[in-house]
Structure formats: C-alpha cells, structure tokens
Amino acid sequence: xxxxxxxxxxxxxxxxxxxxxxxxxxxxxxxxxxxxxxxxxxxxxxxxxxxxxxxxxxxxxxxxxxxxxxxxxxxxxxxxxxxxxxxxxxxxxxxxxxxxxxxxxxxxxxxxxxxxxxxxxxxxxxxxxxxxxxxxxxxxxxxxxxxxxxxxxxxxxxxxxxxxxxxxxxxxxxxxxxxxxxxxxxx
Length: 187
Description:
By secondary structure, the protein is α+β, with helices and mostly antiparallel strands. It folds into 2 domains: 2-96; 100-171, 2-Layer Sandwich (Alpha-Beta Plaits). Helix content is 59%, strand content 17%. It has 5 helices and 4 strands. The chain has a 4-stranded antiparallel sheet. Helix 1 runs antiparallel to helix 2 and helix 1 runs parallel beside helix 3.
C-alpha cells in the first residue's frame, strides 16, 4: 500500500508539473504573439522573425504536451495560459511603447502660441497651423511627432496647461527628426 501511495504521489507531481509547464508555455507564446503583432503594426520586421521562431517552438511543445495528456485540466491550463498571456503581453507592449505618434492639439490663438513655446522649450518639435473651429473661429493647431514612450510625459505637460483638445494617431514611418530640438553646430 505504501508503494501505491508513492506512485500516486509521483504521478500527481508529474501531472501538476506538466500543467504548470503548459500554462507557462502558453503565457510565453501568447506574449510573443502580441509583441509580434505590435512590431508588425509598427513595420519593425526584424524582431518579428525572432518572435515567430520562438513562438512556433513554444506552441509545438505546449501542443504536444496537451495532446498526449489526458484530462480536461490540460485543456484548461492551455486556455488559461493563452488568456493570461494576452493580459501580460498587453502590459509588456504598453511598457515598451514601441513606435511613433502624431499628436494634434487644438487651442485658441493666444494660449496656443504660449503652449507651443512651452513644448518647444521642453524639447518637442512643434509645427503650428491656423485652422477654423466651430462658427469659423480661428484656432491654432499644434502638431507634434513623438515616440510612444514619451506620450505620458507629453500628456501631463498638456494637462498642466488646462483644458486641451487633441487627436492622437499612430505613425508607421517618418523621415527626418522626431520630437527633439536640433541644434546647429558652432564652428
């Protein structure tokens, strides 16, 4: 009877270890898929090759473990790993904040000029144009291109100016400088 108990205990440990492995492999694989999608959206192709290769190995091994195992617990571990992987991948992608944004800020003329100067003093490249708002009133449009990972600081700076209306767009490609002050060299 003691040998049977040890066999059951050993079997339980192996089964539990396989469940954990399947769960973790699917977390990793799904995170990689999320990152791959983000890289593709930003047209950053080189990291896609690496994430696709690693993801395919992870997926095949997790699928093999799930296919040869018996019980619904393995299917649940597989699905739960996928679900948690989406959550974790989203968190990682937000931390990386890979890519560029174009932000258009709409202000009244006087306060718009002041905000543009503040943004330029903080190192942002700002282009201003005149537009017309509701009832044909003149508005100043401040256009800035910046890396996504700088957006939170940029947004806090805008909030400190008061009520701000803006639109934010993802950019796939740009030529020239992005969000930095260019200085002319002195000879």
